[in-house]
Backbone:
């Protein structure tokens, strides 16, 4: 009976955590669409999530495309199917690797930053000070980050798709000896609108989840510096796990037969 009680306690704790997160998300989303708005805060988050994340996302996508081209050629050459390298690179990048790698990189950079910033404000009572000054913390701190994550991640992933495919092209033409025109023709022939759209939808979902987990863990942090550090770790880990789970769900929606 003690073992069953332990399982039940864990399950009830999990449901409670999901409920608190869902309530937090619902309140934050409601403040995204209701005035007053804080354009300066939104612009700041646009720059932080979008512009300043470009180097890490771009480099990750570029080298992912290059490695993918090398590995694809190594495998397909065993079956005399080297011409499929361009197809594998463009579909893998636009459907999966571009959104997932960009999401994980942004989660490590932005999710941790959000949790640390809001968590520090929480433990130093700056969040309570906002309430005292008649400023809603959700509207001032959470809503701009959720909106920026939702809108900027698709742009980041679009850049990642371009750089990833370009990385595969550089390796395919420069190292593996493919004809430039044939490689580009194979890429355009196999690429469909749905491939790009599915990746951009994933990016929007990932951006929302990254911002949500960063804000949620930071907002509920406690216990001084140690609590802020724990909130930062939880934000990155939970966002990464949710990215992988939601990636499967969105893929199932778009490509299940």
Residues:
């Amino acid at each position: 009976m003690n073992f069953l009680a332990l399982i039940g306690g864990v399950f009830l704790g999990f449901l409670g955590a999901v409920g608190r997160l869902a309530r937090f998300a619902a309140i934050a989303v409601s403040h995204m669409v209701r005035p007053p708005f804080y354009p300066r805060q939104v612009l700041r988050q646009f720059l932080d999530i979008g512009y300043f994340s470009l180097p890490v996302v771009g480099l990750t996508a570029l080298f992912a495309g290059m490695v993918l081209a090398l590995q694809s050629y190594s495998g397909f050459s065993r079956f005399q199917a080297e011409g499929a390298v361009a197809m594998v690179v463009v579909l893998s990048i636009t459907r999966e690797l571009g959104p997932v790698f960009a999401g994980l990189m942004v989660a490590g950079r932005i999710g941790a930053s959000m949790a640390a910033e809001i968590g520090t404000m929480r433990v130093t009572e700056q969040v309570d000070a906002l309430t005292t000054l008649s400023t809603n913390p959700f509207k001032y701190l959470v809503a701009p980050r959720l909106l920026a994550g939702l809108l900027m991640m698709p742009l980041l992933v679009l850049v990642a798709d371009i750089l990833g495919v370009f990385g595969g092209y550089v390796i395919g033409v420069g190292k593996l000896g493919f004809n430039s025109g044939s490689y580009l023709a194979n890429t355009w022939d196999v690429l469909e609108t749905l491939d790009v759209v599915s990746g951009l939808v994933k990016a929007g979902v990932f951006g929302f989840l990254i911002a949500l987990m960063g804000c949620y863990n930071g907002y509920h942090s406690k216990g001084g510096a140690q609590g802020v550090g724990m909130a930062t770790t939880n934000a990155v880990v939970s966002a990464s796990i949710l990215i992988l789970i939601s990636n499967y769900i969105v893929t199932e929606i778009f490509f299940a037969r």
